[in-house]
Amino acid sequence: MVAPALLPELWTEILVPICAVIGIAFSLFQWYVVSRVKLTTDLGASSSGGANNGKNGYGDYLIEEEEGVNDQSVVAKCAEIQTAISEGATSFLFTEYKYVGVFMIFFAAVIFVFLGSVEGFSTDNKPCTYDITRTCKPALATAGFSTIAFVLGAVTSVLSGFLGMKIATYANARTTLEARKGVGKAFIVAFRSGAVMGFLLAASGLLVLYITINVFKIYYGDDWEGLFEAITGYGLGGSSMALFGRVGGGIYTKAADVGADLVGKIERNIPEDDPRNPAVIADNVGDNVGDIAGMGSDLFGSYAEASCAALVVASISSFGINHDFTAMCYPLLISSMGILVCLITTLFATDFFEIKVVKEIEPALKNQLIISTVIMTVGIAIVSWVGLPTSFTIFNFGTQKVVKNWQLFLCVCVGLWAGLIIGFVTEYYTSNAYSPVQDVADSCRTGAATNVIFGLALGYKSVIIPIFAIAISIFVSFSFAAMYGVAVAALGMLSTIATGLAIDAYGPISDNAGGIAEMAGMSHRIRERTDALDAAGNTTAAIGKGFAIGSAALVSLALFGAFVSRAGIHTVDVLTPKVIIGLLVGAMLPYWFSAMTMKSVGSAALKMVEEVRRQFNTIPGLMEGTAKPDYATCVKISTDASIKEMIPPGCLVMLTPLIVGFFFGVETLSGVLAGSLVSGVQIAISASNTGGAWDNAKKYIEAGVSEHAKSLGPKGSEPHKAAVIGDTIGDPLKDTSGPSLNILIKLMAVESLVFAPFFATHGGILFKYL
């Protein structure tokens, strides 16, 4: 008999929800602080809260007052633009959710029918899969509860994305107005707003999962195997919504961005976010629906799946067999500790240190990653000491492997630190402070072709170190604790999700703030400040994508292990024809998926370019600034294109496991999952980093900070035009195809796990009758 964990069950049941509630309360507090920056034409309003005149105070007089541009019309204009962006984003998401809602109902029915048919819709208890001496609840119950968990995961994912978008569109104009007081004030508003999203998502995801487990436990009782098998539906729901959010949002944002850049910057030689550009509102809306709502749903999906994979393996290990609830909740305790650690880390950016100059922005964001990782290492040690028995067994493909608590601590740490390494490697390859991006910018001297060649080479090279980091973390964690080790390593990488999301959401908010400053006609100094915030945000967005892809690889492997165990496969032999054909097809899927998403962006951008050209050619006085463009038509083009084009890639991902599992069986499906994981991770990293490098090479030339950058500029020069073309090519790579691929590899794995009982019973009909 294994000794129980030090932490009593009652304390676990209190601590997990309390940490989640603290996270939600902290996010609401940050929202309250942001809301004190007023969007009214009252000049004193944006200096509200005069009592708080410290470094985060709101009583500072505006630098612009002495320049005579602090008139009421600027504030009113900012409020008007913010409303247009917010309404556009809300309208698109509601349209998207209507279609996604229909899919959710249909797929919930598929889950219920397929899983219910495993035992012929019998309501009788059955022998447990892993211990036939015990009886477990009927398959029909698992079907019903999996369906409920799927719907809960889907709704939580949708809400995560929607609320993130709402806070981002609430904060963008406030960031612009605070930039009038200096870059430090604007940074704090943007960062606090990102923190609202990060903490809200991390805490609500944890709370819903915890409540779901406890409610399901009322029915399942001692049948923890069935309970946590049903919980996997939560991860499936989260990721399936994230797929549509990422693909739909990515197509929307890049169609608008490419259309605005090609006609505005290259053909008409007008600045980015110029109010004369008809696609400018659609472009700013896109930042919110793609980079905020899409990323929120994506990381929520990763978190839900990593938790589910760990819980499934733990339920058939000594934790589940001995009904040790505290040890069983180890993944939830890690996430709870992560919320507290991220809360302390956030204070370093908002309260402990003040940003005074532009060059302090990027280090402040990087320090968030370092501080959260260091403190989290201590947090994991505490959780592992009090939440785990000193020795226990973990299920390892049919056998029970003896594991010590310090080994599990190392598994989580290796994932946590691998995430930091991936983050910094991504930053090195995508930040214009380092030589790789500067080399790409330099290649623009000889035109767009050399820029494209250098950018592609950079992307391929940037894959090397992250893959080694992922490989080492898989080897270490698997050696110590089999597939459970890999699952908790993924959770380690995601344990600081609140901080990761805060610095990720900060980017699009700053980008929008710059757009609003340009459209509102604010001074050049304000635009310089928002551009500095945006450039740092671009790099942090790339770091966020690196985290998402790295964690997706670990999550996918953990889910793959759980699927193989559940489907009753003892070894996946790559020399058998069934597996090798699966490997080849699986490795091809990310290419097919990328082709679909890239072409979708291309065809939508084509319509956008034609519309923008039409308006410039047919609306008198548009170039002179005396006439207003028709923003609504461009918003409609992006909305219609993204809704229509997100369906085929979504169907490809959702139907592949069902078709392969049903017709070819679990062995071929295991090959497909392994193939898609191996090729998908490489393409996702290279696509994201190539796009990020091209974007920052363009910004490097535009900023003209160094002598080298000045020699390539200014805006409108031939090297700058070559850089804009590179950036435009990179847009769908970094914001549509790349980020969506990590959902592809996770989603196919979690879907296979949910349907594993059905595939094991009824799958492989072609091989049965051939």
TrEMBL record:
Alphabetical list of Pfam families matching this protein: H_PPase
Alphabetically ordered keywords of this record: Ion transport, Magnesium, Membrane, Translocase, Transmembrane, Transmembrane helix, Transport
InterPro entries: PPase-energised_H-pump
Claim: Membrane is one of the keywords in the record: yes
Transmembrane segments: 14-34, 99-118, 138-165, 186-213, 328-349, 369-388, 408-429, 463-491, 547-569, 575-593, 743-767
Domain of life of the organism encoding this protein: Eukaryota
Listed GO MF terms: diphosphate hydrolysis-driven proton transmembrane transporter activity; inorganic diphosphate phosphatase activity
Main location: membrane
Enzyme Commission number(s) of this protein: 7.1.3.1
One GO cellular component, as annotated: membrane
Cell compartments where the protein resides: Endomembrane system
Topology relative to the membrane: Multi-pass membrane protein
Protein name, entry field: H(+)-exporting diphosphatase
Species per Swiss-Prot/TrEMBL record: Arabidopsis thaliana x Arabidopsis arenosa
Taxon lineage: Eukaryota, Viridiplantae, Streptophyta, Embryophyta, Tracheophyta
